[in-house]
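Re: the 317-residue chain
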Amino acid sequence: MSVLEKFRGCLLGLAIGDALGAPVEFEQLTGIRARFGRAGITDLVPWHSLPAGSYTDDTQMALATVRGMLAAHERGRTKGIVHGPSMVYRAYLDWLATQDDPTQRRAPGNTCLSALRSGKMGTLDAPLNYSKGCGGVMRTAPVGLAFRGTEAFRQGVEYAVITHGHPSGYLSAGFMAELIGHLVDGTSLDDGLDQSSETLRIYAGYEDTLEKITQARVLAGNRTDLETAIREIGEGWVGDEALGVAIFCALRFPDDYRAAVIAGANHDGDVDSTASMAGAILGTMLGAEAIPAEWIAKIENRQEIESLAARMHEIWG
């Protein structure tokens, strides 16, 4: 499998997982099953006034992260050293401006909105809040396409802490970034989890995030049924739980993108985020060819996503 296919798989995979979960984001599993049957939601369907394949703020912000990294690279190439997180912050402010358009406002998180409206950029030394919501981790998978190892972790942390100041809010993002980088390099999922966990332990406040990662690995290994396992990990509204659910889905279905994102989209919690993150992991592991072609054909802004993946591959592939 080519590295380009992994880059495409990451970006398309996260967008499609997001679009799968979007129509049922605020429903309980019982309500999802009442609408779609015992298997729950298993295909891309319209939501609100949007066509099937439309994604939420999760993908909007993940793509903003990509644009910020590309802008930082270009500025660094032409003008020398540049502070990457500041360029990503600018990209997030550009995203914030789009939220005045009702067609682009896709249930954005209150923490992201309030932090970006504050006029200040959160940092590890000066966090804006103590939020551990999943709005940081859900947007940082693409960081692992540009950076590797502990640097991917550090960059993921710095991008997430722009809006989320609790360790579980930004360390889960760093972990996700490093894990994706390992998968790009061909490392197995288990080894990638081990290596990213070593980096995680370097940071203060790592315990809750590591606990959810460990719990996900145990539940995936002992074959606990999907509904029970995800309920035990949590609903995914906070960073460490969202990461745990995504890892569990990837471990339970390591060779099946469709099954992993369907699992991530059918529970009582933040299903678009957990399905998106599971989609990023499986998309990177298996490549874009593992994603159903009919889903790729329907995804919103497919050409832009493909173009961003190709540009990232030119620079970092």
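The mean pLDDT is 97.
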